Amino acid sequence: MTTPTSHVHTSPTHPHSHAAPRSSRGPRQPSGPSVVRPQGLGRLLLSFGSHILVPLFLAVGMGLAYLGAFHAPTPHDLPVGIVGQGAATQVFAQTVTDQSDGALVTHVVASTAEAERQVRDRELAAVYAPTTTGATLYVSTAASETTASAAQKIFMPIAYQAHLPFTVQDVVPSGDQDTTGQGLFFLLVALSVGGYASAIAVAAFATRLKPLWTAIIGLATAGVVAGIGIVIAGPIYGIITTHRWEIFLFAWMYDAIIVALGVGLHPLLGRWTTPILTMLFVMLNFTSSGGIFQPAFQPGFFAGLNTFWSGAAWLRAAQDLQYFPGASLGRSSLVLALWLAAAVLLCAVVHGLVARRTRIAREREVSALEEEEVVAA
Fold first, then answer.
1. At what angle do helices 211-231 and 183-206 cross, to 10 degrees?
2. Phi, psi for 19 (deg, rounded to 5)
3. Residues 196, 344: one domain?
4. Residue 270's domain spans which residues?
5. Nearest to 182 by CA among 125, 143, 236, 148
6. In whole angstroms, what is the distance from residue 217 CA to residue 38 CA?
7. Last residue in a domain, options 170, 204, 228
8. Does the model's pTM come out above 0.85?
9. Per residue in 11-67, pLDDT tens?
10. Is residue 33 part of a domain?
11. From CA 261, how far away is CA 233, in angstroms rounded?
12. Burial 235-261 (b: 16+ CB within 10 A, else e)
């Protein structure tokens, strides 16, 4: 018998047969803490250095500004007066000036009525009026409580040496809710900080808006910041008791300056806009405003800034409106108007430069596309 041959049928490999998958992973990395390559470490340190420069700038600037302005407040060429007539009064006034070693400039005042007027008009910081029975010192704490205190320390020993009872007459006192006379200065602080913080927010969106809308939003923001400050200093704490609308308008102009400068500087300085605004409206602004110590008690640099800085102009206008209603607001208005004009001009110039740069970039893109089309054809 023939044994049938068994046939083994071998099926071809199916294209979808399941084969052992190959690993697509690369070489296995050694476990353990990641190692920073030297190039990566250099970039990391460079990035850290660029970020730490801003707080270091603020630390150095704040220290130099505040300690430089306030570490040793001593009077220099402080204008004071002596009430009296005749040669004896002239000699006495000259003696006071000479013995002060440059701290005082003493003027002769004809009468006590004239003394009160000159102190009220802030022509003289203090006037000393001696008589045969006593001595009176005329000062104004509304103008500066620190100057009034310094004048007392100067003239009180003179009265005691002459065995004269000494009294102080506050010609223009500060308000009942502002016993130190520095409430308006701290309002300036609030307006400034709120102003430059808002300026950064407005500047961040200014590039997406048309100039008209940027101006509207900037003015509205400045008005809100100024309004908040006036409400807090007025109805809430009673520091501002009169001419609130006028003080608000000056505050609005002051904050509009800050916002406009922020909008103008941001495209040029980027993240350095905040420290630069801090330098302008904190470091240099508060120290030169005269709110703590008047210019006669400060180094020449800060005293010089007081003549044209925006914060000093606003504080002077607010003090005049609150405590010295007969004083002229012309100088303060002019200084703030010039600052605002300069800030608006900066915005216009920077906007023009940004628009020109954007136009040039678009023209280059169009030119590049046209060249590609020509090459493809």
1. 160
2. -105, 160
3. yes
4. 183-362
5. 143
6. 48
7. 170
8. no
9. 444 444 444 444 444 455 455 555 556 667 778 878 787 778 989 999 999 999 999
10. no
11. 25
12. eeeebbeebbebbbbbbbbbbbbbbbb
